[in-house]
Amino acid sequence: MFTIAGTVERKLWSEKFMEWFHKVLREAEIYEMRYPVKGCYIWMPYGMKLRNNIISLIKKLLDETGHQEVLFPTFIPEEFIRKESEHIAKFEDEIFWVVKGGKRELETRLALRPTSETAIMPIFKLWIRAHTDLPLKIYQVVSIFRCETKATHPMIRVREVTTFKEAHTAHATFEEAAKQVEEAISIYRKFFDTLAIPYVISRRPEWDKFPGAVYTIAFDTVLPDGKVLQIGTAHNLGQNFSRAFEVTYLRPDGKHEYVYTTSYGISERVVAAVIAIHGDDRGLVLPPTVAPIQVVIVPIYYKGQEEYVISHCRKVAEYLRSRGFTVALDDRTDKTPGWKFYYWEMRGIPLRLEVGPRDIENKVVTVVRRDTLERRTIAQDMLDVELRKLLNEVYENLKQRAWSWFNEHYHTASNIEEASEKMKLGGIVEVPWCGSEECGLAIEDTLNARVLGEPVDEYRKLRGKLKCINCGKESDKVLRIAKTY
Amino acid sequence: MFTIAGTVERKLWSEKFMEWFHKVLREAEIYEMRYPVKGCYIWMPYGMKLRNNIISLIKKLLDETGHQEVLFPTFIPEEFIRKESEHIAKFEDEIFWVVKGGKRELETRLALRPTSETAIMPIFKLWIRAHTDLPLKIYQVVSIFRCETKATHPMIRVREVTTFKEAHTAHATFEEAAKQVEEAISIYRKFFDTLAIPYVISRRPEWDKFPGAVYTIAFDTVLPDGKVLQIGTAHNLGQNFSRAFEVTYLRPDGKHEYVYTTSYGISERVVAAVIAIHGDDRGLVLPPTVAPIQVVIVPIYYKGQEEYVISHCRKVAEYLRSRGFTVALDDRTDKTPGWKFYYWEMRGIPLRLEVGPRDIENKVVTVVRRDTLERRTIAQDMLDVELRKLLNEVYENLKQRAWSWFNEHYHTASNIEEASEKMKLGGIVEVPWCGSEECGLAIEDTLNARVLGEPVDEYRKLRGKLKCINCGKESDKVLRIAKTY
Predict the structure, then answer these.
(1) Neighbours of B285 (CB within 10 A)
(2) What is this structure's pTM?
(3) Nearest to B160 among A68, A73, A96 (CB)
(4) CB A232 within 8 A of CB A272
(5) Domain A410-482, CATH 3.30.360.10 — does that match?
(6) Structural domain boundaries in chain B
(7) Fewer Cβ atoms within 10 Å of its own Cβ: the N or the C terminal residue of chain B?
(8) How many CB pairs (< 8 A) connect A and B?
(9) Interhelix angle A174-194/A45-64, nearest 10 degrees
(10) Which residue in chain A has the smallest CA separation from B69?
(11) Any idea which fold B293-392 has?
């Protein structure tokens, strides 16, 4: 037995996504965007809690798979950052340089890390002696700095990435490094699944891989405006960095060999994706798996009943906390219930309990789901079981809704004209491709879009013998293309 | 019934403290000191766990008292950092400046925050409108950067402070700000008590307060070499920063007034103090309250019994984990028990369980305390209760030992000659003082030491009418002086 408490509108969300996004970051008190340095923002208390829950989740997955947390310095000496030539060539334009300490010029210019491979490799050289030291798997959660030349966007393209989780590993063979990339992929799958974020996994083309990598695997999702957001990458670095930094190990057969390394990372873009993908015109809709508050209780009363109702609500809150729920009780007496509904809906709390004198009398509570705005009455003594079930239903519904929206924005096309039409719908277009860099670049150029790469997941749609949409050559390869952030 | 498994030596610890400290940081795998940028170091996995536990503890204390976690940018525009004149005058020489992004000069020089008052105040200006917005209490845990001109020391004087917990608050009146400083002091007391770190609390002299503060209260402890380490500070900033940044609020009477602010911080020096104060010649000795592992199990067997003994140990580990202990089982088969004892003693695990075939037969385990090396047999079915009791005893013993060592290094003196003699013993000397800056500076100069300030705790020893050790004037004031880091 349930009724609908309102309509789930997604008009602003879909038609003016950036306006919606900024409004929600501001009104839900996630992010302060008025800091006067370009591309630098402030995590506000509620946003910080959401961010911390998401970090805890990825840390747990990494800890469980034998990764060890460390913390490396922010400064990288110029000499180090220049050692791997492809790496510096790509990052050269984006590095913030520290050249002065106080009034004195520094002896050596210090880069603010744009990523930490070149800080970590000289230390791997000290830590790794023999095959018994391998594999070595570490990670850190840090700020990295990139002087982005493109337009900055809050949380999506920033100059101080405040939430960079980067893992770095070293192995005895190329195959073990490749297997490590597989492990990274499986960790990220679990991570995004828990966040109910849809994704495809692609092998980036040669011309768009991480600078210094043998190959790069990337996770991409689609935001409400149809543009694609890269939300995670994993790189097999082969021996490129170990050669540059001379990191060798002693093999069981007594020979020395360069180690094979990998790195993989995610950033606050994941938080942006959680916010963007699940929201609606009323604001945030958070998956119960990472919501800072799962259940908010709003007391409903007429004048004179305050203490009676609020003290009952306190007991309900206490009980739910003892059962492991995270609960907020909104006992502000200077705000109306309607004001509070708006307030907590904007913040995306998965379940709202409304408790009035009639409910107390009938030994029930009224519960409203944030995702569907469905309203239902639950017997007090079934609260624990029913809320647990409901939280699970919210999660499943968000996941299903996000994936079906994603599916609608994943297209295929068999020629350039069709691809061009499909591009207009927003999202990702999968097209046949001969495999040549020349055709890949031509496709990017013609469609004014970006190549995401070849599918390495089960999501690929086109099968069998196909014809490259640029040169017409027969091939079984496909490419994913999209407008990207 | 117990025996002693060894002698608790503190020879290297007390006679060559810095050598001991470096050895422990290295051998216990706390800290990598070979990073090639002066004053920058790496937290290794075990050190990181200890650091994280200590951070969790202070975060919990702050969360419980209504502080909200946030995250502000690393960059502070030059214009902001120059707004409060005392502040910039002091930090001018220590600021790392970013002047280039890629190959382009930046439009405005960016300071890497040496502390965040000047990043936060412009935002407080946006967040604070009326008295209903006060008090505002936030904190963050971040890296700060200071181009120290003094000699750097691992974890004690660093150029990237990686573990700066800074709280910032705003209030309606000076009294409320003063009360907030009291709250900070009470939080830090709990914090250091939980870490079993002894301290005195002093009001820093005018000439050594935080730049921009009305007054500064500081926590100091004494390291094994007799030098004093500042481990926490709390500042009442009055209206100094709010005037510079024009942060006002609307009072209930309709008038606008500048807010009153405070800030208080701790850093990785706290981790250094935990390591330094509780250690002995065998390495770390960690308080069970923050030890990453509370109990380590070492199986003892002859060849052929491995599986029997290890599988029993696994059950013990599982049982203890289910009871809430953090447990490591050292089941390495290529290491001897003696090697393992050394390994885990170096890492300071509070309790070691030794389990051999005879113990299994007798349904007992052998437990060795890290702090006293006392060895004892415990019946299996009493394990939970007894280990809990023992962990508590270890904590109490560490606290008692640390405080009694501290007490022995807290001296009083009634004239310059006596003060000079007492200074040679190491630690803190409390002396009568007339209260004038002139005499304070003269005392520093004569004794070649630093003034810690006036006691604001109950630890003060000298009472009644006293004579300033510099000018002889009668006074009831005293000063604490010491050699400091």
Answers:
(1) 26
(2) 0.97
(3) A73
(4) no
(5) no
(6) 11-278, 293-392, 410-482
(7) N
(8) 141
(9) 140
(10) A45
(11) Rossmann fold (3.40.50)
